[in-house]
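FORM 12-B: Structure-to-Sequence Request
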């Protein structure tokens, strides 16, 4: 049960006893496990006061429920009340009701508008209007009226959603958010049109109230009622909601009427608009008197109302002026005849000019932050920092002037003021850049690189974008703007400018303008709040720079596992580059990198005391690390297959590990000694978990089962059957009564621990569910999938409450923060995303970078070498000059395979989405796309040309082998029953494939499997035919290479590799076989004797790809160290190493500050250099 559901239940149980706002706040955070000091800090109250409110609340609930209620037993009492309630059926609908209030303002104090409220309520509830627009000038009270209406009629709707369009979010973003709230059970369609249709279906099935505030933000400034370029989609959504029959209502607030509404509306139609006029004299008097203002005559009230047309915001601002300067006498104020008639901006101009310098600084920062902020967060923006008391004094002054909003210790600007101040921010920065007389440009950041993702994106839209556009208009070209900013950078090195946001602002503007920063000199600058993720910073000089709160690309080479520390202070992740990285969650900076594993780190876990991390790797070992120092405490060896599962006992003294060798091992954490081996699973062990009390061990496996074990005896207690495919992940509920499992069958199942009965099946993922985790309160499950989404599930109802979408690659792992407010997910796309559980917004994206070489191929004439890489690029290297002559980013994810056609004119590349792309090698242009099953998770691992070049065979993650006719692009299916990792053509046109089921299969072109070669003991990753077609070679996870004849007989097993054998290739004369391994070597084998002729060492990481030159004199190899090495076959020596410049190649970070040691290591891994003085 979430906090919102608990509050809904509480409203029902308390009947007429409605909680106060402060009580509701304390209840919500107490439900989530926050301490009183944490709640006080968040809300901006004294801890003692919060503690008193809590005590009174628990006493009130104790009296209502007739049993003792405390902060600690709150959840247990309410769950018990729900189960005992005879009126459960009446409560259930309340719990299913969804409300999302977004940035809705507090309208507990509301003046007038009774007639308008009554009319709007009639339109919505009686006339069943589908589309209503509340129109009026800025400050007239549109937002307050819409909010008041929504609070009064909320009980008549199944779903209520409030969304502010103030920052002009793209329609796709808004639509997805609406669907995630409304369509809680279904996966969202990928296309915009299908999403609108799905929304319309829900608007018919449910009674929904959707409020879009500040719609004018997406309308064009120059053409009344028309949509801004790129925002036309809003018109289509509004048109369909207004024109089609349904039972819901879309309520808009806007300064001008969208033309879509104009076309549809009518007095007798369910589409209407309400233009707001000013408040009456009586209502104006009420506002002023609440601010201690008075008049000596009734005519003065009338004059005041007339002067400001009854505009509520204008009246509030005037009232504060009258109170402060004229002792509350409106009459005396009117005598001055200093009234700004008409446009509210004129009034705001006058008000703004009256502010002190410090008040202006505060108001600018509030505009930059774009959302509610705490006093501490606001204070941190100032350089130098101001005292808390001084800042509080300024905020109170601004509140008295009606310029800002305050709610539970949080501050933001009133909407019209926010827009006005943002405009001032842009215009003042524009003038300063043009004149190069800098002040605001130095004191305030244009964007905050360290802020939440959605805030930074908003800052870019409303500050950076318009500022850049105006500078281009003023100076005439991008080049002139770059020149102007370059001059500013030179100025910033002078002492008066040494402490400022200027450096970061200049760099952020240059990046927005897509200026190539290569070779720039930013030495000795304060580079604060610079967002440098994805920036090409090759040969940039940052020597002596201060990187305070700047954000760089990291080396998250496919994050495979994530875990929060028990206290929530750290986030650890295991990566495909064999490293464990630890980040500080306060600002998400990298603290430590733990190095020692030799292959992918697939699982990580913190010990219960948070002092130790365990990591499991495909190198068959588990390591224990000291969290404080990064030191490796123990290496646990003994497994003979990939180490995949780890779990600490709740007491922290034992660690259980599971492996692809089908066994479990129990270890003593302090000594590293193996105490016990558990056997019973018949396939790979994927996950392990202890029950909260430590008495029960659960494990999952590719044998499609979950097992419960008695740890002391090593006996299996129970086996849970029900999944139709491999079980990938398991987790106990916090109370230990249930266990959840995720599977390749695309479902999550919830099991009763005591009976072993399946209680629920959660279906909705379109690809395998790789990871599942309970929220700390047990009310929610989160699952990550190969369909690139995270889903949040209501445990009680089984419904999908929200789908989180941002990743572009398989999601491997998800983890809840201990406070239950945030969730982390990691993906093959080299990102870790931290999500706000309640809104579904991404708070932080930790962006990594990898350029590992996945595949290489020589052209038939031997002049060129093609390479495929993790960084989405395909490169063409000229062998003689050793230069990269072509580089194209032809895919949006890892490129797994490249192959030349026999004539050398075409290059085939494969990636995700089931796609194979054909390129013209001479021009580099895309010729054709071969489209298989179009899923993000459907990676095409290999695509090869037939000997004649008229066919392409491919294998993919959808477990299919496909045959493509190159001229027509038509596809036929050879197999769809087992995943193949590699595929090869024989000279006479037969096909060999290496599979998950440990076999090599031979096929004819009719799709008949003519042989299945069994002998490997693990997955087969590489296959190749000899040039004469008489032999097949295979490389396997079992560390061996096997040679087979074409009839399926195993001729030899080559066993010298110390790690996974990834790839094999025959020399053109068929006498030598080469193999590449995760042991970082390439081995050359004599085909006749099976002897290892040479071991080629030099790579710093796994070797994924190998290829012989057509003349057989040279071998190329590539791998995770991001290099390609060319070897002389006769001598075994490395001729040369090819490497594309890395993202930060030769970036000088000598003497920089503001970076942790781990961050510096990351920058160096991406090519940065540092000169250490002796």
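FORM 12-B RESPONSE
SEQUENCE OUT:
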């Amino acid at each position: 049960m979430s906090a919102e559901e608990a509050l809904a239940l509480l409203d029902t149980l308390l009947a007429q006893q409605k909680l106060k706002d402060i009580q509701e706040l304390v209840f919500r955070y107490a439900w989530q496990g926050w301490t009183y000091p944490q709640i006080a800090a968040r809300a901006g109250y004294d801890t003692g006061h919060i503690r008193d409110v809590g005590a009174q609340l628990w006493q009130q609930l104790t009296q209502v429920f007739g049993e003792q209620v405390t902060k600690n037993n709150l959840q247990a009492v309410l769950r018990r009340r729900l189960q005992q309630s005879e009126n459960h059926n009446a409560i259930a609908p309340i719990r299913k009701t969804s409300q999302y209030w977004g940035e809705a303002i507090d309208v507990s104090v509301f003046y007038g508008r009774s007639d308008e409220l009554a009319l709007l309520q009639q339109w919505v509830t009686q006339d069943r209007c589908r589309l209503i627009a509340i129109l009026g000038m800025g400050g007239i009270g549109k937002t307050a009226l819409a909010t008041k209406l929504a609070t009064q009629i909320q009980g008549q709707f199944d779903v209520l959603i409030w969304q502010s369009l103030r920052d002009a979010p793209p329609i796709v973003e808004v639509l997805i958010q609406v669907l995630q709230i409304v369509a809680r059970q279904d996966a969202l369609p990928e296309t915009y049109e299908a999403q609108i249709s799905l929304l319309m279906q829900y608007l018919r099935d449910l009674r929904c109230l959707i409020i879009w505030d500040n719609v004018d933000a997406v309308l064009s400034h120059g053409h009344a009622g028309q949509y801004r370029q790129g925002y036309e989609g809003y018109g289509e959504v509004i048109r369909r909601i207004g024109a089609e029959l349904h039972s819901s209502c879309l309520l808009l607030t806007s300064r001008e009427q969208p033309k879509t509404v104009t076309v549809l509306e009518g007095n007798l139609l369910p589409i209407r608009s309400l233009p707001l006029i000013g408040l009456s004299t009586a209502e104006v008097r009420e506002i002023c008197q609440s601010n201690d203002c008075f008049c000596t005559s009734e005519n003065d009230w009338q004059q005041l109302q007339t002067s400001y047309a009854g505009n509520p915001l204008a009246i509030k601002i005037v009232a504060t002026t009258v109170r402060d300067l004229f002792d509350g006498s409106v009459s005396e104020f009117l005598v001055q005849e200093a009234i700004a008639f008409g446009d509210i901006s004129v009034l705001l101009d006058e008000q703004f000019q009256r502010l002190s310098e410090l008040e202006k600084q505060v108001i600018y920062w509030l505009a930059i932050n774009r959302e509610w902020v705490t006093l501490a967060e606001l204070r941190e923006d100032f350089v130098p920092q101001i005292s808390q008391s001084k800042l509080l004094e300024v905020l109170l002054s601004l509140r008295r002037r009606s310029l800002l909003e305050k709610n539970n210790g949080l501050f933001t600007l009133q909407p019209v003021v926010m827009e006005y101040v943002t405009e001032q921010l842009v215009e003042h920065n524009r003038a300063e850049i043009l004149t190069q007389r800098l002040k605001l440009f130095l004191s305030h950041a244009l964007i905050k690189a360290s802020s939440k993702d959605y805030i930074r994106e908003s800052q870019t839209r409303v500050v950076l974008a318009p500022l850049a556009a105006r500078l281009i208009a003023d100076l005439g070209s991008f080049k002139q703007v770059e020149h102007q900013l370059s001059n500013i950078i030179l100025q910033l090195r002078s002492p008066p400018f040494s402490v400022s946001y200027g450096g970061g602002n200049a760099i952020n503007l240059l990046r927005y303008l897509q200026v190539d920063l290569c070779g720039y000199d930013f030495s000795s600058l304060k580079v604060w709040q610079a967002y440098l993720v994805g920036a090409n910073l090759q040969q940039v000089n940052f020597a002596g720079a201060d990187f305070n709160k700047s954000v760089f690309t990291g080396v998250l080479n496919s994050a495979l596992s994530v875990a929060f520390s028990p206290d929530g202070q750290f986030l650890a992740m295991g990566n495909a580059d064999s490293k464990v990285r630890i980040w500080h969650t306060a600002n998400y900076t990298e603290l430590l990198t733990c190095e020692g594993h030799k292959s992918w780190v697939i699982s990580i876990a913190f010990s219960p005391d948070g002092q130790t991390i365990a990591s499991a790797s495909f190198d068959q070992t588990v390591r224990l690390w000291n969290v404080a120092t990064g030191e490796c405490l123990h290496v646990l060896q003994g497994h003979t297959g990939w180490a995949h599962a780890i779990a600490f006992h709740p007491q922290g003294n034992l660690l259980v590990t599971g492996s692809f060798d089908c066994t479990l091992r129990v270890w003593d954490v302090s000594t590293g000694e193996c105490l016990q081996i558990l056997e019973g699973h018949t396939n790979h062990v994927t996950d392990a978990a202890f029950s909260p009390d430590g008495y029960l061990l659960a494990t999952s496996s590719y044998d499609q089962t979950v097992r419960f074990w008695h740890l002391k005896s090593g006996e299996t207690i129970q086996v849970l059957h029900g999944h139709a495919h491999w079980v990938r992940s398991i987790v106990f509920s916090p109370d230990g009564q249930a266990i959840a499992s995720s599977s390749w069958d695309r479902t999550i199942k919830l099991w009763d621990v005591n009976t072993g009965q399946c209680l629920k099946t959660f279906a909705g993922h379109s690809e395998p569910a790789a990871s599942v985790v309970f929220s700390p309160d047990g009310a929610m499950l989160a699952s990550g999938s190969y369909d690139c989404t995270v889903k949040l599930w209501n445990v009680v109802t089984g419904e999908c409450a929200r789908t989180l979408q941002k990743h572009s690659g398989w999601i491997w792992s998800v983890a809840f923060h201990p406070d239950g407010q945030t969730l982390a997910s990691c993906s093959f796309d080299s990102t870790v995303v931290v999500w706000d559980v309640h809104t579904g917004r991404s708070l932080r994206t930790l962006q990594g970078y990898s350029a590992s070489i996945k595949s290489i191929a020589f052209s038939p004439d031997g002049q060129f070498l093609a390479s495929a890489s993790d960084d989405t690029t395909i490169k063409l290297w000229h062998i003689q000059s050793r230069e990269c002559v072509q580089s194209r980013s032809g895919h949006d994810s890892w490129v797994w395979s490249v192959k030349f056609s026999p004539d050398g004119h075409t290059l085939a590349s494969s990636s995700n989405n089931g796609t194979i792309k054909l390129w013209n090698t001479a021009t580099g242009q895309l010729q054709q796309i071969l489209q298989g099953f179009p899923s993000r998770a459907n990676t095409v691992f290999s695509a090869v040309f037939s000997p004649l070049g008229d066919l392409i065979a491919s294998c993919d993650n959808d477990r299919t082998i496909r045959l493509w006719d190159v001229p027509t692009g038509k596809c036929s299916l050879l197999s769809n029953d087992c995943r193949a990792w590699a595929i090869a053509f024989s000279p006479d046109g037969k096909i060999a494939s290496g599979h998950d089921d440990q076999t090599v299969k031979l096929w004819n072109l009719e799709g008949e499997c003519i042989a299945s070669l069994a002998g490997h003991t693990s997955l087969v990753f590489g296959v190749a035919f000899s040039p004469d077609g008489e032999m097949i070679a295979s490389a396997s996870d079992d560390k061996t290479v096997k040679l087979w004849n074409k009839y399926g007989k195993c001729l030899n097993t080559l066993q010298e590799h110390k790690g996974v054998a990834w790839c094999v290739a025959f020399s053109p004369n068929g006498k030598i076989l080469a193999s590449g391994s995760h042991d970082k070597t390439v081995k050359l084998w004599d085909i006749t004797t099976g002897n290892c002729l040479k071991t080629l060492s030099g790579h710093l990481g796994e070797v994924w790809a190998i290829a012989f030159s057509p003349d057989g004199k040279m071998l190329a190899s590539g791998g995770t160290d991001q290099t390609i090495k060319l070897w002389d076959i006769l001598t075994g020596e490395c001729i040369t190493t090819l490497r594309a410049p890395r993202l930060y190649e030769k970036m000088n970070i000598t003497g920089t500050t503001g970076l942790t040691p781990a961050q510096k290591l990351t920058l160096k891994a991406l090519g940065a250099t540092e000169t250490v003085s002796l």
